[in-house]
Amino acid sequence: MPLRSFEYIEPASVSEACQILGDYPEEARICAGGTSLLLLMKQSIVRPRYLVNIKKIPRLCYIENDGAMVRIGALTTHHDLEVSPLIAQCFPPIAETEHEIANVRVRSVGTVGGNLGFAEPLTDLPPMFMALDASVKIENAKQSRLIPLGTLFVGHYETILEPGELITEVQISRTPKSFGLKYLRFSAGSDKPAVGCAVSVTLDDSTGVCSNARVVLGCVAPTPLRVEASEALLVGREFRPQLAEQAARVASEACSPLEDIRGSEQYKRDIVKILTARAVTGAFEHAKRLS
Amino acid sequence: MKRAIRVTVNRTEHVLSVEPCETLLDLLRNHLNLTGAKLGCDQQVCGACTVLLDGLPVSSCTVLAVDVDARQVLSIEGLAEGQELHPIQHAFLRHSAFQCAYCTPGMIMAIKALQDQVPRANDDQIRHFLAGNICRCGCHVEILEVARAILGTPSTPPREVLP
Q1: Range of the domain at A18
Q2: Which residues in chain B have their CB less than 8 angstroms from residue A39's CB?
Q3: Chain A: closest CA distance from residue B159 (Å)
Q4: Interface test with A, best of B64, B124, B127, B133 (most A CBs within 10 A)
Q5: To probe the interface with A, which of B62, B72, B75, B125 has the most A CB atoms within 10 Å?
Q6: Inter-chain contact B42–A1, Cβ cutoff 8 Å?
Q7: Pair (A267, A186) in one structural domain
Q8: pLDDT, tens digit, 9 for 90 and up, residues A273-283
């Protein structure tokens, strides 16, 4: 369906963009890649009066590593992450997952900031970033704040962003030496994922005992879901297959999947159990290889 | 309100006045009469509208025309050199890789993008890259042959699907 008409604004700076967003809290929508927003606008589900294209703002597209931290600018595309040598070196699961997201055309255009800000539940980056304890930088016309990514999401398509605020950067602190990350997704071809599971573990170099863990599920709750009960099972233990299965069972009980064309509630719980067990195993294996 | 944009399409610069709600596909078809790229699903799934934007494949149905200001677009009409078809176009003819041909311009642009990005793609990489371009007539086997011929990829049997 054709797009309904709207007024188009092309701010030249973050502060100008935030000013406009603050002036029209109900009527303005941010457009980065537009891969999700424009589809909703075609269906008239979202009808902004002002479309604020932030792509002309300079210095929002970058992937940098200063040793202590990897910084990813909000306008970095899926394709940028997919082919970045830095991402492949620091976080191989991100590069591997980006290779599978949607199709090549969507990856050319869709952005990291748009992906997070849209708060689509059926998506891959948030669980992975949360397993890496990522933070997001949020700016308004006057100042910026840094929040843990996990606190950004409120519900389906809903974030804590206030009127006049814009996501400008994702920050991932340097991971410890014996740190393993594994992300697994379940999807039919180029479709959105039906289930995603990210697990990270930090191991004690000499004993192989897990000192820190993150288990984050995607697609099976209104927001990415951190399963602290599964994490607690892993911390203080060495890897055993039964441990992975135990953590997986807890995760499958903690989530609240919705039935849709991708599967029934029970089916998705079963997939959560399988993916979590495999992701826990994979994260331990990854960490052991590095220790 | 209309906006003036300056865009390079198939190596020719155009200054156009476009509505913000027009897409890149509207720009090509309605402003420049370049009707190779087709409207298919209108939601970035089928690939019939594929063109290259600054060298990368995009769904022109879901890119705003105002957004291609100062950028480079390559559409199917920009592949041939005068009367001489591009090698990918020749390969499509040689392998009869179409029936209705509605998907063909997008398919050819996708193979062009693959050739640019992964010049020595193996069979798996070809299948993966082209997974987002759909041929409803079911000419995927012949299209795969085209990509193999263009990239010099030996054919390998498809992986067995587990029961």
Answers
A1: 7-53
A2: 43-44, 62
A3: 15
A4: B64
A5: B62
A6: yes
A7: yes
A8: 999 999 999 99
Spatial strand order in the sheet of A210-218: A179-186, A195-203, A210-218, A225-226
ipTM of the complex: 0.94
Question: Concatenated DSSP letters for A236-271?
Answer: T----HHHHHHHHHHHHHH--PPPBTTB-HHHHHHH
A41, closest residue in chain B (CA to CA): B21
pLDDT, tens digit, for every residue of B26-42? 999 999 999 999 999 99
Mean pLDDT of chain A: 96
Residues B57, A79: C-beta atoms closer than 8 Å: no
Question: Side chain identity at A205, as an amino acid letter?
Answer: D
The CATH number of the structural domain formed by B87-151 is 1.10.150.120
Residue of higher predicted confidence among A88 and A191: A88
**Which pLDDT value is given to residue A190?**
79
In a domain, A251, yes or no: yes
Domain assignment of residue A2, yes or no? no
Q: Are B47 and A103 in contact (CB < 8 Å)?
A: yes
Give percent of chain A with pLDDT exceeding 90: 97
Does residue A58 form part of some domain?
no
Q: In CATH, what number does B3-78 get?
A: 3.10.20.30
Neighbour count for residue B47 (Cβ, 10 Å): 27
B72-74: strand order across its sheet: B12-18, B3-9, B72-74, B50-53, B56-59
CA distance B62 to B75: 15
Indicate whether B163 pLDDT > 70: no
Residues B103 and B142 sit within 8 Å (Cβ to Cβ):
no
A contacts of B62 (beta carbons < 8 Å): 34-35, 38-39, 109
Å between A48 CA and nearest CA of chain B: 11
* Number of folded domains that form chain A: 3
Q: Which helix (H) or strand (E) is A69 found in, with range? A: strand A69-73
Q: What percent of chain B has pLDDT over 90?
A: 93
Same domain membership, residue A78 and residue A41: no
CA pair distance B107, A64, nearest whole angstrom: 35
Q: Which of A190, A184, A183, A127 is nearest to A153 (CA)?
A: A127
